Structure formats: structure tokens, C-alpha cells
């Protein structure tokens, strides 16, 4: 509001990274892409702009700031990309109606959130199709939408409250010493909710996945981002679970809202464009990585608006992700139905081209 | 129909005399008694019945009423025999036709509020039909003039697995545009924009930008070139009847269209393995046999289809009409060596086989298929020996159903075919099952050939999306809503 030009000093007026964190913290049910859209809308509202290109410029600036301010921007970039493409496709068409279009966006931030949550509910509604009597389901927790899907399956009955589907759940729980408390409490809440509904839940450490695999009928995981080739980026350990499921010929389903589709084409684990300090080679003199970073990271550090980054460019423990290639995925359950991994690129093509 | 076993032919004859409700009941009982069975007869009977339903005299339909009516009839048919997926497929196709006609109608009547297919699911779904998916305009299935037909052959998976080259087939473009497959207007499926869309109705803002395509190329007028009707109120009934007739035409020509690619797949001196007495496969092989010599191993599909298989090998496949005695020439008369083998010999022979050709009972949305029992053995053996598996299937067999539980898709038949009832002692001591179908996973199939051309299994979702509306995929979901409302 202070600076009409989103050029040099809008950091002072509006801090997108802080807004993003605040939005995410305020509503634990919010996914990262939606939080990113929310923050961009707040940014748009705070910074008056009168022309289309000015708005687009502002949004791309804010997006760049946000991405550089967050250690793992894959998931949120799904939201920012979606928003940017939406703006481009709408604002440019709405020649006379620029103000109306802009106002629509600014005023309906809440509505987007509601829709995103409705999408999750829709997905959860598919649960009863996937989970059958006598099934044993393996999941790696932490995902709200998987939790919702399983809860829905547990409840699905003729409205009597107690579910009619008898199934069991194996939750992979990693009790990391460094502890990502938000994630862990979420997992605990999911497990408690299922047990509350008379669904037997077992908690196993990630090392026991292979041991359990023979009794599992299907696996469900969430995703931080669904990438262009139909693979997913998700919490560390997902790739390994998918590999084991494939080896045991068990279906491996990804449960994800379609706003998590992100235009990224990773060729492998180390091609995600984020720095992760997972493999840390050390000698008696210390970490090899430390030396390299000191040399290369200086230039990058200047570009970041402020030092909001957690750590020096690497993810905090508990936040690491891996990439699961599409060949391991049986299907992606979205609010529009069950997609094959190969259908993801088409959805992305629809909005980008 | 006195003195005749009820069948597809008698049913089609009786359609003209009976009133609609009687016909529906008759079809339901025929389905239940399995006197009409298998995909093609079911599909044909369904189109004829729905044609009668739509053409009901003295009824004036508006779109919504027609959708309700067809949906209601469709649900009864599907409930009668849920495993005959062709019935459900045809019902969905017809619903898609109605929706398309309704939308075209609305398009021509300016932008009045969209009510044609008030989807019960959520508010945002309501807008989706209005959102033209630009991709599907480019899709080869639409056969739009702007589309270079080479794109169709360029599916990497297809070409790699089978060395197919369609591109050169000169008649293909014509085919695509005239009578390829009657797909409804590209259903939008899910748009990623859905959470951002304008909340009130269809906003002019809510359409993607016009890029290379001009707005005039939009979904409505380009597809069916009936001409200057776009400006007047359409006669829904007539339009839908036309649509259903196109569907019937498609069912008539589907085998010939599939057979057109035979020469691309069957090469000289190849050894081909097939299974059951499928008309589609026979036609395909006959077309190839006119030009090329190959050897055919024919697994006999005991105990459910072996008699028909033997008859096919000996006397040729039965013609189009189920009951007529007219038969096509047997392959042997064209100089093809046909070797009949029991199903149990499949694995042993697989190492000598160059190509496996299967005919499915139904193809599911994720690329897996249901076929006569024994198909899974063949597909697994082929996988083990790295022999390509080609599945010949009309689009009408392609179902949007996702195989949540494969066990419940399998139908079990008469156990006395395995062990006859005379052997009562045997019957008392053991359980005898006779599964009619096998489920074959999608990664065992290398190529699907439909009347639209060849597709990798991973591409089938696209064809499903082009032929069925999202709203119609779950026919019963609507019923739930209706029950709740009522």
C-alpha cells in the first residue's frame, strides 16, 4: 500500500514469506500451494496496481521472493504457478474488466481455500471404493488427505456412524530425534481418529515396511507435489515404500488434490532443484559439503530478500523429500477421479499452453 | 418370437411391436438370463432400446428430462447385469450425446444460465462443462481439420512397442472425420483452475485464452457439420436420435476399422497366437490373410468357448447377425496354417510365438482388461517371453470404470461345463468353479488397437475422457443424490 511500484522496496511494505508462514500456521488444514495462493492474494491486495502487466510483474516478483525464501518451494510453486497462469489467462482477456477481475481475486481468497478443502473432501469420498473388507492398508502418515480418505472409508456406511468396512491400517511412523512436531502430532491425530472409529491401526518404523509388505493389500500416500511425468515429490521414505510395494506387486496409490500438480520434470532424486543435506560425506576434518557450500552459496545469499531461509539452503531434518518415479505409481486419486500418472502432464498442459 | 429361443435378433424384432416399458423389461430379463450376453450384442441391444426410449412418440423432451429418463433406464439395465459393461458404456455415451446437444443448444441461445446438466456433485462441477479444454480440441479423436493426422501415429509407446506405422495409411484422415467414433464434446475432466474459477455461473473470464485457435473453432459447431442450425433452437429429440444412430453405425463398422490396421501388425511368416472365437480378431486376421501368409496358434478356450472356437476354425467366423448361418471364410481357406492348441499348452509354445492377439470382454479406464478365462495365462506367458500382446477392442468396450476390486468383476459360469452333472460323485466331493473372465493387468498389454487406431495402455484414459462425461462416469452416484432428494 505504501509503494505503488512493486520494484525496489516493496519488501518493506509487504513480506510475502512472512505472510506465507503466517497463513500456513493459522490454518493447519491448509496445503502449501493454497497457502501460497493466499499469500499472493494478500500481496495483491496490499499493493495497488492498475495495469495487467504491472499485476503480473508484481505476482512474479512476489513468487520469486517466496520461492527463494522457503527451503523447499516445490509444493508451493504448484500454487504460485497455478495462480500466475490463471492471472495470465484471465487478466489478458478481460481488457475492460481489469478491476473487476482483480477484485474478484482479492475478495475471494477465502473461497479458494474452501474449494481446496472441498476438493479434499471429494477425494476422501473415493475412500470407500479403494478400501474393502479385510484389506490392510499401508500409509506413511503426515498427509491430511490420506487421513481424510481413510477416515471416510472407516465411516462409510449407511449413516450409522460406525463404519461397515472392516479394514486395518499400518502407519509408518518415523520418530525422528530432531522431531517435526507438527507432522508427528498430525500423524498421531490421524491414528487416534482411526482407532476412535474402531479401525485397528499398527504403527511401524520405516525399517519394517518390507517386513509388513506381504500382509498389505494396498498403499496410500499423500504428495507435496505431483510432477509433470506423474511422479511425486513427498516426504523422505516414500520412494522406498513405493519400490517395496512394486517389488511385492501391491498397488501404490497417491492421494493428492489436483492443485498440487507442479510443472517440474525431475530426472532423478538429485534433480529436484532443492538443496537437501541428506547424504553428508564426512572425513575427520568435517563435512565435505560444508566446504563446497561456503564457496558457491555466496552469490545466492544476496538475492534472497532476508535471511528467512531455514539453515543455509538445506532443508531442516524431517522436511526432506524424495522423488517417486511414475512407474511405481498405480494411480493418482484426485478430486476429479483416479488418474494414471500419464494423465498429469495433460492437466498441466491444459493450464500452461 | 414364438418357438424361438430369445436372443438379440428376437429382441430387436420385438422392439417394433412392444411398447417401451415392455421392451425395457424384456431386455432386463434377457440380460439377467444371459440370453443376450457379450459386449457387442449388449451394446447393440442397448443402442436400439435407448433409441426407442428417446424416440418415444408424443413425448417432448427437454434436456434435463431426457437425461433423467435415459439415466433411469440405464441404471436399471446396468443393475440387471453389471458385469456387461458395454451396456453401461452405451448408456454413458448416449447421456454424453444428450449433454452435448443441450450445451450446443445453450451456446446458440446466448449465455443463458447453464442448466442443462445441473451436476449434483458440487458447485464447481457445474461450470466445468462450459470450460472448453483446449487440449481435447487438439486431440486426434476430434478429427478437427486443423489437426495434422500424423500426430495420431506419433504415440511413442505405440510405435516403440510394435513398430507400427500408421502415418502412411492414406485413408486415415477421412476416416477420422467421418465415422471414426462418435465422441461427445471433449469433456473437461478436471481443470486445475477449478479452485480459482469465478464463482458465479459462467463468466467470460473463466475461459482460457485463445491461443492458436480462434474462438470460432470452439467445441460447438465444428464437430458435426450439420450446417446453419446453430442459431435456431435445436430439436433435442432429433439431434439425440441422430447421435444414437451414429453410435449404431460405429458399432457396425468397428471391426472393419480395427481390421484396417491388420497389415501394420501382422507380417509375413509370423506366428500369431489368439484365443476364443472373437469376431473382431477373425476379421483382423482375415484382412491380414488376404495379403500375407502367417501361422496362427489358436487356443481353444475350454470349457466356455471351445465349441465356437472349433467352429470358427473349421467353418469360419459367424457373420454380423448372431443367428444367421452366414459365415465368413475360414482362415484355412486363405492358406493360413491354423493350429488348435489347448489352453494348457500356451506357455510351452509361447517361445515360438511372435505376437499375441487378444479380444477383451471389457477394457477398463486404467488400461487393464477383462477377457475370456485363459487370457491372463496367455498375457503372463507372453510377458515372460517378451512377446508383444496386442488387444483389439472397439471403443464401445472401453469402460470408464476403475477396477477398484478386480475380483468382483469376474463372472462365474456354469460349473457343469467343467465337470458334467452325470458325475454326481465328483460333484459331491469337490468344489468346481468356472470363471468366465480373467482380469489382465495393464502392464501385460503392449498395445491396444481400437477403431481409432493404436494406443498405449497408458493413453486409454484420454480416450475414456473423450468419450464419457465426468458426470456420467458414476451412474449410481446420481441415484444416491436423487434418493436423498426424494
Automatic annotation (TrEMBL), chain A:
GO MF term set: guanyl-nucleotide exchange factor activity; translation initiation factor activity
Transmembrane segments: none
Pfam families (UniProt xref): IF-2B (PF01008)
Gene Ontology CC: one annotated term: eukaryotic translation initiation factor 2B complex
Subcellular location(s) per record: Cytoplasm, Cytosol
InterPro entries, per the entry: eIF2B_alpha/beta/delta, elF-2B_alpha_N, IF-2B-related, IF_2B-like_C, NagB/RpiA_transferase-like
Family from the record: Belongs to the eIF-2B alpha/beta/delta subunits family.
Binding partners and assembly: Component of the translation initiation factor 2B (eIF2B) complex which is a heterodecamer of two sets of five different subunits: alpha, beta, gamma, delta and epsilon. Subunits alpha, beta and delta comprise a regulatory subcomplex and subunits epsilon and gamma comprise a catalytic subcomplex. Within the complex, the hexameric regulatory complex resides at the center, with the two heterodimeric catalytic subcomplexes bound on opposite sides.
PANTHER family given in the database record: TRANSLATION INITIATION FACTOR EIF-2B SUBUNIT ALPHA
Protein name: Translation initiation factor eIF2B subunit alpha
Organism encoding this protein: Friedmanniomyces simplex
UniProtKB/TrEMBL annotation, chain B:
Biased segments, Polar residues type: 111-120, 176-194
Compartment annotation: Cytoplasm, Cytosol
GO molecular function: guanyl-nucleotide exchange factor activity; translation initiation factor activity
Recorded GO CC terms: cytosol; eukaryotic translation initiation factor 2B complex
UniProt entry keywords in alphabetical sequence: Cytoplasm, Initiation factor, Protein biosynthesis
Region annotation (Disordered) ranges: 106-130, 144-233
Keyword Transferase: no
Self-association state and partner proteins as the record states: Component of the translation initiation factor 2B (eIF2B) complex which is a heterodecamer of two sets of five different subunits: alpha, beta, gamma, delta and epsilon. Subunits alpha, beta and delta comprise a regulatory subcomplex and subunits epsilon and gamma comprise a catalytic subcomplex. Within the complex, the hexameric regulatory complex resides at the center, with the two heterodimeric catalytic subcomplexes bound on opposite sides.
Stored PANTHER family: TRANSLATION INITIATION FACTOR EIF-2B SUBUNIT BETA
Family per similarity comment: Belongs to the eIF-2B alpha/beta/delta subunits family.
Protein name: Translation initiation factor eIF2B subunit beta
Organism from which the protein derives: Friedmanniomyces simplex
